Amino acid sequence: MAREIAKTTGGYASPFERIKRTNEAGNEYWESRDLAEVLEYTQYRNFEAVIEKAKLACFNSGHRIEDHFADVSKMIEIGKGGRREIKVALLSRYACYLAIQNADPKKEIVAHGQTYFAIQTRRQELADKSIEEERRVLLREEIRRHNVQLADAAKGAGVIEPIDYAIFQNHGYMGLYGGLKQEDLHRRKGLKKSQKILDHMGSTELAANLFRTTQAEEKLRRDAVKGKDAANRTHREVGAKVRQTIRELGGTMPEELPVAESIKKIEAKQRKQLGKAETPAKKKSE
User: Fold this and answer.
1) Domain boundaries, position 52
2) pTM here?
3) Looking at the structure, do residues 61 and 150 belong to the same domain, yes or no?
4) What is the dihedral of CA 218, 221, 223, 228, to 10 degrees?
């Protein structure tokens, strides 16, 4: 095993990559017994102690253990047609990283594993950040578009003047944010008056507001709501229903979600990257 590992870490497929598995949903995972073998634990019970330390580290770092460790049973062949049930932990990449951090540091392969999972975990973090940024940009654009449609529906209900529309919008926020108005949210989230609150929401909070916007528009039109007071009440009721749904699902209340980097910065970065990608193509065509 040691000679094989020395070869694979020198430029070929990592032994940790070779034992990686993928479930039906396309999510990657590692089986604890495979990992124990690669890490040269001849007795699996000794590696179980490592897994328990990793679980504790996971809990102490603020992550849910069940999101990264799944204890299951599986049947294995033991010869002459016999089968035996064994216990296995299914590990996420982060769980593997924590396990290797708690493994025997005297083993050379453990050092290789620490490097491998540290690099791969960081790559995953960057990939997740990129996905989150893309989601935020798309959701923010959808809200811009639907806010125009909501404004049109509100106008049809009698919300004409800009000051009246601002009040109407505040009622939607108050419903979704438990009575907090837009200015309250600015203070709570530490935003300046010049900063648009929607530009500093993460994808989860943006999605909640998009749902509020689309449902408020549909209800105003469907119920043929008339009058400013009735429109305000409708918007607040819709916001409150979205909030109730979040609560029933066990989600974090939107006012408790963290402030995110300005979407304007992300959009500027994307435009810059797009410009760099287009420049070589333009030169080539010229």
Assistant:
1) 2-104
2) 0.57
3) no
4) 110
Give the separation between CA 234 and CA 175, rounded to whole angstroms.
Answer: 10
Number of structural domains found in the chain: 2
With tokens 């500027």, the residue in question is: 268
CA distances, 188 to each of 192, 197, 262 (Å)? 11, 11, 16
Tokens 């944010």 found at: 177
The answer to whether residues 8 and 61 belong to one domain is yes
Clarify whether residues 96 and 191 are in a common domain: no
CA dist., res. 237 & res. 231, Å (int): 10
Please tell me the predicted confidence (pLDDT) of residue 143.
Answer: 94
Q: Which residues, including other chains, have CB under 8 Å from residue 132's CB and lie 6 or more apart?
A: 202, 203
What is the rounded CA–CA span in Å between residue 46 and residue 28? 25
Tokens linked to 195: 């900063």
Residue 34 burial (C-beta neighbours within 10 Å; 0-12, 13-18, 19+)? middle
Calculate mean pLDDT across residues 20-43. 92
Tokens matching residue 39: 């890490």
Contacting residues for 196 by C-beta, under 8 A, at least 6 apart? none
Does any domain span residue 196? Answer: yes
> Is-contact 264 199, C-beta < 8 A?
yes
Provide the token pair at 105.
Answer: 């540091």
Residue 153, pLDDT > 50, answer yes
What digits encode the pLDDT tens for the residues 159-204?
A: 999 999 999 999 999 999 999 999 999 999 999 888 999 999 999 9
Q: Strand, coil or helix: what is 1?
A: coil
How far is residue 164 from each of residues 116, 130, 143, 235, measured CA to CA in Å? 58, 38, 20, 13
Q: Give the phi and the psi of residue 80 in degrees, each rounded to 5.
A: 55, 30
**Residue 155 located in a structural domain:** yes
What distance lies between CA 224 and its chain's CA centroid?
Answer: 38
**3-class secondary-structure state, position 234:** helix
Identify the pLDDT of residue 170. Answer: 96
